[in-house]
What does this fold into?
Amino acid sequence: MGNRGIGHFDNDSPADFAGDMDKAAAEERESMIRRVLERAAGPAHHPPGYL
It folds into this structure.
């Protein structure tokens, strides 16, 4: 069943990511966060100079 709402963790993708973070070893968490931030800020999602 999918979640849909307006809160930060009220839909599937952020909820899944939070669950993955909980399951990950402490030394893996920084690289997981870094990959997500790089993807979000990358040119594939926003035009150059957007952020």
